[in-house]
């Protein structure tokens, strides 16, 4: 089963963004936050999930549900 972190990383890599670039695009000042999401240390809040979906052009299901798709 894929995790939201793996989906974020795969979508980011496919889009050609660095973690810092993605952070800038979604309005996060701490570029390390992207790394924490990708490693499933923390789950992005709903607002951040919306921005990730918009910028990366992927569908990320509810973080609490654990299901993701790219």
Largest β sheet strand count, sense and barrel closure: none
- Cα shape: globular
Strand percentage: under 5%
- The count of DSSP E runs of length 2 or more, i.e. the number of strands, is 0
Which regions are unreliable across 5 or more consecutive residues at pLDDT < 50? 62-70
The multimeric state of the shown protein is: single chain
Secondary structure: helix percent = 40-55%
Distance from first to last alpha carbon: 13 Å
**What is the count of DSSP helices, taking H or I runs of 4+ residues?**
4
- Rounded average pLDDT: 85
- Measured on Cα atoms, how large is the radius of gyration? 10 Å
Element-level helix/strand string: HHHH
User: Strand pairing plus helix content: what structural class?
Assistant: mainly alpha
Protein name: Multiprotein-bridging factor 1 family protein
InterPro entries: Cro/C1-type_HTH, Lambda_DNA-bd_dom_sf
Domain HTH cro/C1-type: 8-63
Organism: Nocardia lasii
